[in-house]
Design goal:
With 238 residues, the chain is an alpha/beta fold. It has one domain: 3-Layer(aba) Sandwich (Carbamate kinase). It is 35% helix and 19% strand. The protein is built from seven helices and eleven strands. A nine-stranded mixed β-sheet has the order 4-3-5-2-1-6-10-11-9, with helices on both faces. Strands 7-8 form a two-stranded antiparallel ribbon. Strand 1, helix 1 and strand 2 form a beta-alpha-beta unit. Helix 1 crosses helix 2, helix 4 packs parallel to helix 6 and helix 5 runs antiparallel to helix 6.
């Protein structure tokens, strides 16, 4: 097999991906599949970090619509990401992939605190690092956490796993005439309001020239193909 195109990557997963076909919670078969795909690229020597959302359990962004305090809701969402991180860690380690969960919120009984140099050292030793609890601050999404952590660990690219084959001009689930975009600039994503990642995350990636690949995680071996540099999904860059 040829050499991977990237040596250190950050994989961004939404919490909804873990639901599979369920309407809520975690589908163990999905975490097992994701764990297998991560294990494949890890076996090639690709250093892999993961940022995972919590929308399958609790979405802090929508809770204020029901009268909940936004800061409280966001902290609840951070705890949901920790649950997902532990589920993914379990799936990975059942397949022999050594994993560490690093949390932005102190919860030493189940995860180690996020320390940048320690996280990088784990990656260098061949461990998958799953970042939980977002940035540890309310009002910041896990998209922004993914961009921030990618910069901190000096990842070469963000791989955003979704349910669709990349970026479209509109929601392909709603509009069958939506056009697939193979390449697009950060600025056009912002100007057109495309739902790739939130504006803060896109701006952070643009300022630091960090490319993003948005791809369909449900298609077998798509993650491996993206890491090998094959044309998968959509690419966001300057």
């Amino acid at each position: 097999m040829s050499t991977p195109a990237y040596q250190r990557v950050l994989l961004k997963l939404s919490g909804e991906v873990l639901m599979g076909e369920k309407g809520f919670g975690i589908d163990p078969s999905v975490t097992e599949k994701i764990g297998h795909e991560i294990g494949e690229i890890q076996a090639l020597g690709v250093q892999t970090a993961v940022v995972i959302g919590g929308g399958n359990i609790f979405r802090g962004l929508t809770a204020p619509n029901f009268g909940m305090d936004r800061s409280t809701a966001d902290h609840m969402g951070m705890l949901a990401t920790a649950i997902n991180a532990l589920a993914l860690q379990d799936a990975l380690e059942r397949q022999g992939v050594v994993t560490r969960v690093a949390s932005a919120i102190d919860m030493r009984a189940v995860a180690e605190p996020f320390i940048r140099r320690r996280a990088i050292r784990h990656l260098e030793k061949g461990r998958v690092v799953v970042f939980a609890a977002g940035t540890g601050n309310p009002y910041f999404t896990t998209d922004t956490a993914a961009a921030l952590r990618a910069m901190e660990i000096k990842a070469e690219i963000i791989l955003k796993g979704t349910k669709v084959d990349g970026i479209y001009t509109a929601d392909p689930m709603v509009n069958p005439e939506a056009k697939h975009l193979k390449k697009i600039s950060y600025m056009k994503v912002l100007e057109q309001g495309l739902k790739v990642m939130d504006a803060t995350a896109i701006s952070l990636c643009m300022d630091n020239k960090l490319p993003i690949i948005v791809f369909n995680l449900r298609k077998p071996r798509n993650l491996l193909r993206a890491v090998m540099g094959e044309p998968v999904g959509s690419r966001v860059e300057l």
